[in-house]
Amino acid sequence: MSYFKRNEGTIVFAFASIGFIAFYIINYYIRRCRNRAAAAGDIEEARMSPRRPPRGLDAEAIKSFPSFVYTEARGIEPGIGELECVVCLNEFKDDETLRLVPPCVHVFHADCVDIWLSHSSTCPICRAKVVP
């Protein structure tokens, strides 16, 4: 029996281990280069990165969306008293400030949706693109 036949399992394990280590080293190198480009201020290189953080809206754009006090809008639509903010899952209460998100016209607590929109430019309910 040849040497390779007796140690076939060991050889397969060794090649699999070498492949895994090579994959890890290449992945580490790619991440390191991407982080260096971002730290050096190379915006174009960082922009070409496959993993970009989600972009939200700026504070000025968020504040431009209509806001109102819940007690003023409660009588407009029947059943509005049962509404809740889907971001924090709390019911709307009197004297709380709400914000309306165009174009889908969903309503949320102003503080909740402001935080959401600063990280994401989509509606928390329907994922419609929110454009200021």
Order of the strands making up the biggest sheet: 1-2-3
- The helix/strand order is HHHHEHEEH
Described by the principal axes of the CA atoms, the overall outline is: elongated
Low-confidence stretches: none
Largest sheet: 3 strands, antiparallel
- Give the beta-strand count: 3
Averaged pLDDT, please?
A: 79
CATH homology superfamily name of the largest domain: Zinc/RING finger domain, C3HC4 (zinc finger)
Helical proportion, percent range: 40-55%
> How far apart are the termini?
75 Å
- CATH class category of the largest domain: Alpha Beta
**What's the CATH architecture of the largest domain?**
2-Layer Sandwich
What is the percentage of strand-forming residues? 5-15%
Structural class: mainly alpha
The value of Rg in angstroms is 26 Å
Number of helices: 6
What does this structure look like?
InterPro entries: RING-H2_zinc_finger (IPR053238), Znf_RING (IPR001841), Znf_RING-CH (IPR011016), Znf_RING/FYVE/PHD (IPR013083). GO terms for molecular function: transferase activity; zinc ion binding. The structure is a single chain. The chain has 132 residues and is mostly helical. Helices cover 45% and strands 9% of the residues. It folds into 2 domains: 3-47, no CATH class; 59-119, Zinc/RING finger domain, C3HC4 (zinc finger) (Herpes Virus-1, 2-Layer Sandwich). Strands 1-2-3 form a 3-stranded antiparallel sheet. A hairpin with a 4-residue loop joins strand 2 (97-101) and strand 3 (106-109). The chain is elongated and about 90 Å long. The model has no long low-confidence stretch (mean pLDDT 79).
